[in-house]
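Module 6 notes. Inverse folding takes a fixed backbone as the condition and produces residue identities as the prediction. Think of it as a translation problem where the source language is geometry and the target language is the twenty amino acids. Below is one complete input and output pair. Work through it position by position during the lab.
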């Protein structure tokens, strides 16, 4: 059964994410992951990502047209974030970020089954300009979502080091924190994510400003989405300039990242949530 292009199996990715998290929880109690076990987990994540990606594509770019909403936006953001984590985890010691990325993907993958979105445009699916803008926007927000999760992880690590929470004998928090790279390495990884994410966000924001008529079929309107997107762009730009000029780091950088990301969510998810759920309009 299809409703606005949504397969009745739209719940499948979230169920698979849940099963994987349960397996990982069981494995965590048994001790350190072996190389083979880690490779199997990576393979499982890849397979679920493929299933989730196909389901997302078919539910957004439908025969009826472009179907979208805040739930689809969150699901796409989570998919991109997890996909980027999966790729990076082959080369970098960021396994502690896996739980957050998978849990975020689990919740967001389920949302479209409750909030199916609305038919935005019957013609956008065949417009290469719109598709390009949509892909770049999704990737940029997904990368910055992973950066925000990374910043939250750094905040926990920093507080643990200052309050010596990691010294609790045999505590789960202690084992979890022991798997993290040093804060300096974590900070370097964070800014690598921010550089790429900000470059793509810049392309997204300014292509939307310059080619609004071509992309969306209407002239540029300074609505809440546009304003929050620009606020977010200026905050991320300010963060990277401060990093370059004065070496901004630590808790100040983390707070700046989370503030900029909050504005970004309000732009790309919050506006659709208000329209669809609170105002109940398409």
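Target side of the pair, the amino acids:
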């Amino acid at each position: 059964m299809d409703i606005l292009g949504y397969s009745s199996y739209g719940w499948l990715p979230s169920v698979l994410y849940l099963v994987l998290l349960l397996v990982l929880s069981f494995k965590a109690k048994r001790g350190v992951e072996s190389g083979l076990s880690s490779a199997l987990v990576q393979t499982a994540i890849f397979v679920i990502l493929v299933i989730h990606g196909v389901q997302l594509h078919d539910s957004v770019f439908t025969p009826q047209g472009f179907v979208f909403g805040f739930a689809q936006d969150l699901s796409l953001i989570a998919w991109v974030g997890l996909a980027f984590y999966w790729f990076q985890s082959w080369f970098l010691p960021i396994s502690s970020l896996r739980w957050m990325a998978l849990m975020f993907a689990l919740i967001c993958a389920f949302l479209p089954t409750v909030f199916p979105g609305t038919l935005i445009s019957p013609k956008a699916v065949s417009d290469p300009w719109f598709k390009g803008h949509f892909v770049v926007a999704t990737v940029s927000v997904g990368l910055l979502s992973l950066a925000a999760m990374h910043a939250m992880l750094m905040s926990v690590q920093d507080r643990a080091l200052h309050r010596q929470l990691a010294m609790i004998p045999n505590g789960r928090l202690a084992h979890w924190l022991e798997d993290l790279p040093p804060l300096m390495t974590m900070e370097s990884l964070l800014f690598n994510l921010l550089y790429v994410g900000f470059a793509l966000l810049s392309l997204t924001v300014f292509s939307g400003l310059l080619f609004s008529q071509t992309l969306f079929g209407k002239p540029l309107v300074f609505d809440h989405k546009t304003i929050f997107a620009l606020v977010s762009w200026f905050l991320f730009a300010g963060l990277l300039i401060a990093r370059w000029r004065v070496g901004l780091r630590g808790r100040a950088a983390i707070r700046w990242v989370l503030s900029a990301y909050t504005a970004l969510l309000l732009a790309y998810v919050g506006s659709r949530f208000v329209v669809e759920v609170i105002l109940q309009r398409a």
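Reference fact for the lab report: The first strand starts at residue 2 and ends at 3.
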